[in-house]
User: Fold Transporter from Sulfurimonas hongkongensis.
Amino acid sequence: MKERNFGYVFIVCASVIIILAGIKSASEIVVPFLLSLFIAIILSPFYNYFNKKGLPNALSLTLVMSIFVIFLLLVAKLIGSSVQEFSSNIYIYEQQLSSSFDKLFEIFTSMGFDLPKSELLSIIDPKQIMQLSSGIVQGIGSMFTNGFVILLSVIFMLLESEHFTQRIAFASGDRGMKENIQEIVKKIKRYMVLKALISLFTALVIYVALLLIGTDYAFLWAVLAFMLNFIPNIGSIIAAIPVVLLTLVQLGSLSAAIVSLLYIVINVVIGSVIEPKVMGKDLGLSTLVVFLSLIFWGWLLGIVGMLLSIPLTMMAKIVFDSNRETKFIAVLLGSADNLVEKK
Assistant:
């Protein structure tokens, strides 16, 4: 019996490794599909709303997709020139950042601190830092390189959304399958819609604040904050790096400190106070699992995997919880609050 169990576990582990290797090698196909899936989940409440008002499916779909495409075109037009201008000026920003670091070392030296300048500059190289900032900005734009394919996929997914669960339940012959899929879709839909609204509010606050401070490309940084707010724990930190550096070379250390404080306050107030109250305990994931899922999905699917790490892990947890043999994995993924509630 033990040998049979060992063989079964070995086969399962080997199968998982093969599947993950296949997903990673086919990431160019998987990533647009996942983006389409979660965009369709966010847009589905609007599509369902128009349907409930008595509009035909074709008209509802046309309205939703028209609004979505117009929104994307406006955003692309507003940030396109900013991304290009920021990237073309990256060499100037490198030089300005180097001079800012030189002034900082001079201040510390005048105060009596003997800092190892060459060693510190090898760790915090201004050139590498600005290239990292440019990579962050360009990485967000590269997500939508397959925009036409994504839009077509979203259209077909919305059209099939009403009958998808019934088809899977009928094909599998399992009555409980429909309930499991509906639970997955319900939880992910709630998470994605609420997260999108919270991220939109975060972006609005950052946009207004940066306009008042005077940092260039305020709308670009607001869009960046909106996108990276979907990444748990470190998303707001990544979004803050290019903004703080640009403010430092543009407006000086005092303004950069104000911008840093702004991002810290937003992260604490929205991330630690508002978001948990709005989201509640529906995630049911431990803090460690949230962080590890960020690393895992980021390694597997790149920045899109990081953006979608929470809904993908939630989906996996619900699937594991629906099967007796894999229920222990769902328990391991869950938070301590879930164990208390079950007791």
Summary: The radius of gyration is 23 Å. The chain has a mean pLDDT of 76. Residues 281-343 form one domain. Residues 175-213 form the longest helix (39 residues).
